[in-house]
């Protein structure tokens, strides 16, 4: 009961911090009314009375579809011109909040990183935040959630424990295999890792390397979304070559790990008759 109360306190404190951060916004680019084709619209101007903080505060939420994602990306891109540090702090805080508490939807934030920060800064940011957030989830599970996770997922935890014990001599490569070819969801692996005695150093490094291809694809998708204005742009030779490069980048590390796994890792594989056999080499 004490561990559950502690976890609730952490969630409440983190939620209050994130809400406060989104509420107290610095002054952004101001807008003034402009007459265009008989209609009054808003355009950015430093002498206008109406700041964009009102517009931003009412649109700050976790995106649930591509339309919301595109709108949020455009909003934060314009706000970043004057308040780069604030946008960076807000993005990092939101990302770590999702990862630490195993909330689905980090792929949207990876795409958002590419749209706001570009291909290189966005990829570095996504990899660092994914790793740090997953490690925070590891630590929260270690401190507060061990008994609850075992009670909720006894079979899955038992299976993962057995696989970790079978692959102790090549545990790092086994963890990479799980990230490249997720036999269990990433959120479950983050929460159950301390329960099955995976060292935090191996966990940290395996997350950073193992999720690099996935983060790369998401970030590049965000870069393309911010640059594409029509379907014709999407089917250009440049876009097709970018997609091909992304596919190759994602497949090469996975192919290497798969080849290594056939030689060293101990995994359950399907036999021709449909039964499960243990592969040991």
Molecular structure report:
The structure is a single chain. The chain has 281 residues and is mainly α. It folds into two domains: 183 residues, no CATH class; 33 residues. Helix content is 69%, strand content 8%. It contains 13 helices and five strands. The strands form two sheets. A three-stranded antiparallel β-sheet has the order 2-1-3. A hairpin with a 2-residue loop joins strand 1 and strand 2. The chain is flat, with a radius of gyration of 22 Å. The chain starts with a helix and ends with a strand. 27% of the residues are buried. The C terminus is likely disordered.
Structural class by sheet pairing and helices = mainly alpha
Q: What's the structural domain tally?
A: 2
| Number of E-type strands | 5
Strands across the major sheet, in which order? 2-1-3
Rg computed from alpha carbons, rounded to a whole number of angstroms? 22 Å
Strand composition percent: 5-15%
Give the low-pLDDT segments.
31-52, 230-235, 269-281
Please give the largest β-sheet.
3 strands, antiparallel
Q: What is the overall number of helices?
A: 13
The averaged pLDDT comes out at 76
Assign a percent range to the helix content. 55-70%
Order of helices and strands: HEEEHHHHHHHHHHHHEE
Shape: flat
N-C termini distance: 45 Å
Structure in a nutshell:
It is found in: Membrane. The protein is mostly helical and 281 residues long.
């Amino acid at each position: 009961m004490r561990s559950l109360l502690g976890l609730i306190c952490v969630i409440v404190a983190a939620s209050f911090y994130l809400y406060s951060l989104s509420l107290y916004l610095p002054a952004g680019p101001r807008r003034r009314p402009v007459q265009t084709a008989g209609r009054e619209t808003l355009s950015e101007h430093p002498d206008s009375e109406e700041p964009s903080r009102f517009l931003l505060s009412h649109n700050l939420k976790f995106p649930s579809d591509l339309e919301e994602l595109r709108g949020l990306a455009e909003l934060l891109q314009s706000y970043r011109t004057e308040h780069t540090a604030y946008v960076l702090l807000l993005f990092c805080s939101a990302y770590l909040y999702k990862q630490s508490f195993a909330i689905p939807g980090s792929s949207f934030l990876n795409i958002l990183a590419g749209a706001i920060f570009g291909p290189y800064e966005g990829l570095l940011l996504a990899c660092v935040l994914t790793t740090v957030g997953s490690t925070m989830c590891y630590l929260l599970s270690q401190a507060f959630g061990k008994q609850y996770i075992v009670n909720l997922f006894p079979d899955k935890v038992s299976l993962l424990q057995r696989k970790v014990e079978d692959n102790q001599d090549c545990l790092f490569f086994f963890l990479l295999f799980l990230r490249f070819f997720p036999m269990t969801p990433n959120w479950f692996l983050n929460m159950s890792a301390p329960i099955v005695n995976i060292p935090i150093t191996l966990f940290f490094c395996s997350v950073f390397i193992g999720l690099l291809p996935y983060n790369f694809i998401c970030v590049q998708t965000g870069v393309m979304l911010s640059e594409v204005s029509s379907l014709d742009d999407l089917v250009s030779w440049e876009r097709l070559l970018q997609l091909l490069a992304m596919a190759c980048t994602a497949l090469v590390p996975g192919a290497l790990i798969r080849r290594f796994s056939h030689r060293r890792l101990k995994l359950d594989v399907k036999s021709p008759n449909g039964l499960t056999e243990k592969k040991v080499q």
